Amino acid sequence: MPEAVVDIAVERRAASPATERRTTGSFPTQRARRRYVIVLAVLILVCIASTVGVMTYDNPMPFGSDGFWRIVDLRADALRVIAIVAFCQALATVSFQTVTGNRILTPGIMGFEALYVAVQTASVFYWGTEGINKITGTTQFLALAVVMVVASTLLYTTLLSGRFGDMHTMLLVGVIIGGGLASLTAFMQRVLTPSEFDVLAARLFGSIAAADDDYLDWALPISLLAGFALILRSKRLNVLGLGSHAAANLGLHPKRETMIVLFFVSVLMAMSTAMVGPMVFLGFLVAMLTYQLADTHDHRYLLPMSALVGYATLSSSYFVLRHVFYAEGRVTIIIELVGGLAFLVHVMRKGRL
Q: TM segments (predicted)?
């Protein structure tokens, strides 16, 4: 090839943005790092805008009056619930997908939602409509959370520590348990009266309004402890994301580390589900958006951004439902619709599960 042609090709390659020097760090290029910072700033602005919108929009009292701030304080409770749920779902789903090596699965596959629905249905089945009142309050909230954490921890330790234990077996058992609970729940629902079923159906939608303010005193510190424990293990999550064999070669104990991560995941999911009910597609939607926006494999950057994406998604949905459709609290309607469509688009683009 003539030297002039070679020189022109080298100059074009140097001038092209695609030939920017790539590194093996958290971001492949400096452009990707700048993009992450810009996206993070935009997400912070969206979170601030949605927070201000929920707290102040359509406030009937004059600005600055005692009544105005009283209404703002009442709406702030809903935002605190949204922040906790978004934090729990986002960090739990990203960490769960890393240890399972699959970006389609969510912690819901382990039967958290199925157990919540079974407990709610059983309370109405045995005690009638009064049963709903029997499973409200801080004691019942903590009891439900403890049952979820203990059941999932026993499942993880039993199936992952055995001689033939592996991740796929654990996921399969989780699916079977979830299917069994769903069948038992369907049987109990069939013998309920129409009025009992109507009351039960209202409880089975994930709802911000369903959370009691007393739950926050327990859910906030527990969620923060579990969430920051995962953030502190970000480097270990990066290694686990390479696969069990690579993690073992790099000096990590894959099964022990996986069980620790899954324990914190179960705590976060138990807090979220026991507080507002099942939200099947929220975690998947948040995780998928985070991967697309962050453009990095490093969990030190993925986990904080996922929490912001979750809060922006949930608070924006809450604002739209409250002020456009006047369906306060029923954010599951939008989350399930958008998350379900995102799931289908994602699967069709990949061409496989």
A: 36-57, 77-96, 108-128, 140-159, 171-192, 215-232, 260-289, 301-321, 333-349
